[in-house]
Amino acid sequence: MTDRRPVIAVEDMHVWFDLADGAELHAVQGVTFELRPGERMGLVGESGCGKTTTILAMMGLLPSSASVSGRVILDGEDIMERGESSVAPHRWCDISMVFQGAMNAFNPVKRIGDQIVEPMEMHGTASGSSARAQVRDLLELVGISGDRASRYPHEFSGGMRQRAAIALALACQPKVLLADEPTTALDVMVQAQILDLLVRLTRDLGLSMILVTHDLPVVAQVCDRAAVMYAGEIVEMGQMSDIYHEPRHPYTRMLFAATPDLLGDDEVQSIAGVPPRLDRDLIGCPFAPRCDSTFAPCTVDHPRSLQVETGHTAMCHLNDRLVVGAAGA
Amino acid sequence: MSRVSADVATEATAAARGDAPLTPRRRNFISATFRSQPQAMVGLVIVVIFILIAIFAPLLAPYSIHEKTGAIYAPPSSAHWLGTDDGGVDMLSLLIYGSRVSLEVGLAAALVAMIIGGAVGVLSGFFGGSVDIILMRITDIFLVIPDIPLIIVMAAVFGRNLRNIIIIIGIIYWTSTARLIRAQVKSVRERVYVKRARSLGAGNNRLVFKHVLPQVSPLLIANTVLMIALAIFAETYIAFLGLGDPTTISWGRLIENAFKGNAVLNSAWWAIVPPGVCVTLVILACTMMGQSMEDALNPRLRVGHLAVRRFRVRPLHGKLETE
Amino acid sequence: MGRTDYIVKRSLFALLTVLVAVTINFLLFRALPGTAVSGLKCRACTVQFKKALAHDLGLDQSKWQQYKLYMENLVHGNLGVSAISHKPVRGELWEPLKNTVAMITLGTVFSIVFGVLTGVMAAWRRGTVVDRGSLWLSLAFYSMPTQWLGLMIVYFVADRVGLPHGGIQSPDLGILSQPSTYEYWKDRLDHMILPAMTLGLVLYGEYTLIVRSAMLETLGEDYVLTARAKGMSNWAIVWKHGFRNALLPIVTLIALSLGFIVGGAIVVEYVFNYPGIGLAIVDAIDKRDYPFLQGAFLLLTFSVILFNFIADLVYFKLDPRVTT
To answer: What is the pTM of this model?
Structure first.
């Protein structure tokens, strides 16, 4: 029986960025979710909706122009409590990341193997020849021949570098893997292989994964759950099948509708209009200007996140008629 | 100062003024650059002041520079604000008149470098192929041959007059301009509207003058400003070695005079300090201006992944809604 | 395969440049008014003597013949004979060369070490007072004419720190007794410090800017974010990833500034009356000793080209991606 306790939980996370003229950009607004062991959760939305910022914040990788509030609870401990000093010890051994454009995640003048050994030796999980043996194993695990560890990044193809980046992320056997657009800029065949790999890893290693992407078909294929983000907030979250078949937020519905073929590799088609500015307070629902189902309260009240069924929440006035529940699953 | 570092300190002035990283700007808004970057403005003001001094020299200089009007190496006094040199000539007047030659050489030589470098850059970038390769090899060779011996030899060979000095400096320093312009022209050439114009049958000349040059000229101007700094530096160097024009007075020659006239032994700091300060100021001003301009035209918005001050943590924001 | 191509290409380029430089050297000096012989002044220099000497030196032959002679001589290391001292140029260059190399090394090491430290620090603490302060300082030194800085140092600093104004040896050394080896070398070092420092300060300004720029470029790269994500400390990231990668542009740019070092050395030696190649060149210009100048310039040009070539090799070693 899988452990029902979440391996990591984010509670009411906010992120602000300083702007040049003294104002602030409220990039992430009250994001809350949990992740269970072995679970694959998708974090979906248009570019600029705050999904990358959220996962960067979870690892404390935001720049000095950012301020963060909220809790990130890992193993019962709030690792965000004191900022950098409480987050840093958990990097890579508990929670690691595969970055967007992993092609460039590697230092071009060092060998791939050395770069994977680096965190192992740093965190003390392995050293010397046993570390090198583990590197070979990791590379084989992601489908790269072990003796390529002595090569340089430019000698790898894009797809192989992506796999190597995954191997790197697994170097210290983390509990949580954050994958930011792991398949963008890869061709379809390679995409499928990478996604396959990610699914296998979560199953075989009991790894939990958050998959950030704007690509709906990817999420639908790979993830157990999904959270849809808009303008810095999670507007809908729940099991993949629930969200797909019964979206309870117009944005989710329009997103899925805009994708012609679930098995195709098209990007999300743009919904007309642009997301709201995040440097000023909003009145009403942030999606209202682009929504096709607005009615009276939409331009006046900000909707609350309501539980529309077990494990399924949505932030839309259309659900107000239901028994008033609350955010969180 | 080398020809190379003119390309390099791009963010130096931006950071020196303490602003946040720049945002990309439209290419032809040079004036916007000046408005937004106070350092560039300061640089411009300084240069303008010196240019005005040079233009109005006869009105500003208290004494003639061809007559002995005071004691030899007289210290600063109310009669001679900056004292006199080893010939009894008023230092302040020398400094004021000296600005003429120094600035003239600086501007003219920079112009020569701009024309040569610009032409090479445009031809190289626009035509590509073997023209490009040949021109770039020539540029490389020019870059590697040390400039100072070349200057010395050419000054010795072709004679020590102002016109030659200007040409020599221009010939030595056109290379970095050529490189920069070439890169710019290459990217402009690929732009859609240029391709469209070409497909409509526009001849090469038309393409170059109507489309390429306007896009390239802001960068060319920025680079030329930096060249002015280099040229003034080179002039002081040439003058110091005794290869300058003996009939003119420039700041470079003033420094040379101070040296030859044993200003150090005579404790005549007023003969040493002012000309160097002037040169340093003008070079600093041009460098700031030029870097700011280049900065604005080729923005490198850099997110530093390392910062001393990390992300900040705030107390809990909203209230959690519980069941 | 592609890697050896690079070395071959750079070698060929270096050789080509040497050839071009050598030829330019030849042409320029042949273009000088008068020949190496007509300017000679000495008691025995009658018209016949000059004619005979000219014949010996091959100056009565065609330009093309002279060029061949010149190249032949070069290959044998013969740089001609000084018009003033009548001794072979090659011998005359040796002693000053040693002095110059020592002084330049001191100054360059100083400037590289401090330039790197300051540049790295400025990039790391970008936007803070440390950064801005060091930038202003660097820009200021960078903008100063080298000879003027030298004069200022002689005037304001030399006496205060008890260092000599110039030369290479104190005139009172060895008057009363034979100086010990230590005393002798210490004296030489004392004479080297200020000129080296002058050169070093101007270079330092330039290098700080170069290093800072290269580091900023590097610190903004994705792999730095990865390193931070891995949990590396700032310090480790700066040196192992930042600096190691920034070395590439730094090496290139330092190599390209070697031309400046040559020029800067000339002027610094002049100001400090330091008997190195630079001072010898200035003297030769003054006395119109064209053969000496020609030889000296050849030497300088050749060293700069050599160092650029070495820089190419170092770059090659540092960057595994280089193939052309």
So the answer is: 0.78
